[in-house]
Amino acid sequence: MTVPVITVDGPSGVGKGTISHLLAQHFGFHFLDSGALYRLTALAALRRGVDLTDEGAVAAIATNLDVVFLHDSSGEVKILLENQDVSLDIRTEKAGNNASKVAVLPAVRAALLQRQRDFAEAPGLVADGRDMGTTVFSQASVKLFLTASAEVRAERRYKQLIEKGLDANLRGLIEEIEQRDERDRSRSTSPLRPADDAITLDTSNRSIEEVFAEALNHCEGIAPGH
Ligand code: C5P
Predict the structure, then answer these.
(1) Gap from CA of 225 to ligand 1 centroid (Å)
(2) How many CB atoms sit inside 10 A of residue 75's CB?
(3) Which of 2, 7, 78, 209 is within CB 3.0–4.6 Å of 133 for a Cys-Cys bond?
(4) How far is CA 154 from each of CA 17, 39, 110, rounded to the nearest angstrom?
(5) Rounded distance between C-alpha atoms, residue 190 and residue 182, angstroms
(6) Measuring from atom 13 of ligand 1, which residue has the nearest CA?
(7) Cα 132 to middle of ligand 1, angstroms
(8) What confidence tens digit (pLDDT) does each residue in 47-76 have?
(9) CATH match of 5-218 with 3.40.50.300
């Protein structure tokens, strides 16, 4: 792989999105939100009345996913599915749960593999997900794996959802997050786990600034001039 890639994996609500965005901004790299592809696949399947356990049908939807990531000047990303803005629809906890249901299907993961790899373009890429370091970019230059307790993660998710104006209930969130993580960890294809050469960062009781500073330390020399 000629293009430098930083992978940022870990369970939900651990701060991957925030740290990945900061890294991408710092280095001027592209950004891959791989979870969005699973969320979009589940949403597109449900909109067509496809059962989320129908592996062949969901994989066909993943292969043909008509999605555009639109970046505006403020750095916000709009996600269009078949020309329709679904940026908010895919962020609900229900959409995350549905994503993790289609993510257990090997044919769906295979269908999304090349699409994800295509994001690795010059000058570099920060890839956020569950299997970026183990499967999709196993040759990545730097692999980070973020962790935090389930309570801390649920509280962060709660705040994020409320800020977006979405409905949330803290106790329900803790349960849903634990269930989703369990499904992600126990699936047979590309389960959530750190790559052997990943650096694990516990984000539980640390500020974004502290975690970002440590992440940056591990990325030294990745891009000229940084
Ligand atoms: O990161 P996000 O919460 O958007 O991911 C939603 C779901 O998509 C995860 O719970 C997981 O099941 C699935 N996913 C995955 N592999 C990735 C990214 C996300 O299986 N690389």
Answers:
(1) 33
(2) 10
(3) 7
(4) 15, 19, 30
(5) 13
(6) 100
(7) 11
(8) 999 999 999 999 999 999 999 999 877 778
(9) yes
pTM of the predicted model over 0.70: yes
Amino acid at 119: F
Atom of ligand 1 nearest to the CA of 17: 1
Q: Do residues 94 and 172 make contact, with C-beta atoms less than 8 angstroms apart? A: no
Domain ranges for the chain, please list them: 5-218
Pocket test for ligand 1, best of 16, 38, 161 (most atoms within 8 A of CB): 38
Q: Which residues contact 51 (CB under 8 A, 6 or more apart)?
A: 45, 57
The Å distance, Cα 183 to ligand 1 centre, comes to 10
**Residue whose token pair is 């555009």:** 68
pLDDT tens-digit series, residues 176-213: 888 889 999 999 999 999 999 999 999 998 999 999 99
Is it the case that residue 120 has pLDDT exceeding 80?
yes
